[in-house]
Write a structure and sequence with these properties.
With 109 residues, the protein is mainly alpha-helical. It has one domain (2-34, 47-105). The chain is 69% helix and 0% strand.
Amino acid sequence: MAIAFIVPGKFMLSVFSMLLLAFLMDFATIALATNRVQPSKKPETWAIGSFIIVSGVLGVAIIAETLFSLWIGWSRFGLATDSNALGTFSFLTRLYFCVFSALFVRERR
């Protein structure tokens, strides 16, 4: 959100939009929250270093995709002149990235 404010110099989302986004993400998270885990016989070990590397790469990719889509909307669809369209575009972009991130993280088996 800070980068999205600095680049065009406008607030992208209102407070209501951010609250609505958090509320909608709660529905998606609760819908995916099933726990059918079988306990293991021995303690699990976590490779935290690889998790940090993967999350950093994915975070940079999401930021780059968001800024690229903002640039396309800014230059091709006239979002620079219409604040309402800019807010809607930003809200939907964040919503899609949040929902798709939650769906991609979901692991089968």
